[in-house]
């Protein structure tokens, strides 16, 4: 119980920290946009908002994509194993039946289990 409470507090602090960083980043983006608008009077608000939201959505997307980083190595190893298996020639050729071999009857009974 004591360990669970400690872990919950750590999780809560980490979540609060990430929310704080998100909001501070957004505030800095808006502050920098306002600063650039005061420095360059030809800059309109629409261009600033488009830039802010492009940066914001790009950062969110890269953060979400980054969480799958460790799985990419595992996926590459799994794909390599699958391709190795598919390259091994089969010992049974179901298409070419050699002369003298008996054909498999059209009706048969069987059961497959996994």
Sheet of most strands: none
Order of helices and strands: HHH
Tally of helical segments: 3
Round the mean pLDDT to the nearest integer and report it. Answer: 84
Structural class: mainly alpha
E-strand count: 0
| Alpha carbon gap, first and last residue | 41 Å
Number of domains: 1
Task: Give start-end ranges of low-pLDDT stretches.
Answer: none
- Strand percent estimate: under 5%
Commentary on this structure:
This protein is mostly helical and 114 residues long. It has one domain. 69% of the residues lie in helices and 0% in strands. The protein has three helices and no strands. The protein is elongated, with a radius of gyration of 30 Å. The relative contact order is 0.04. The mean pLDDT is 84.
Give the structure's gist in a few sentences:
The protein has helices at 2-39, 45-66, 69-87. By secondary structure, it is mostly helical.
Topology:
Elements (H helix, E strand, L loop, with lengths): L1 H38 L5 H22 L2 H19 L27
Which terms summarize this structure?
69% helix; 114 residues; mainly alpha; single chain
């Amino acid at each position: 119980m004591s360990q669970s409470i400690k872990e919950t507090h750590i999780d809560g602090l980490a979540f609060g920290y990430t929310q704080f960083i998100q909001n501070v980043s957004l505030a800095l983006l808006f502050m920098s946009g306002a600063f650039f608008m005061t420095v360059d009077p030809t800059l309109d608000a629409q261009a600033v908002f488009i830039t802010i939201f492009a940066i914001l959505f790009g950062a969110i997307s890269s953060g979400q994509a980054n969480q799958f980083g460790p799985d990419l190595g595992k996926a590459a190893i799994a794909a390599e194993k699958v391709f190795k298996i598919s390259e091994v020639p089969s010992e049974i050729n179901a298409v070419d039946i050699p002369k003298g071999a008996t054909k498999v009857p059209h009706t048969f009974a069987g059961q497959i289990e996994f």
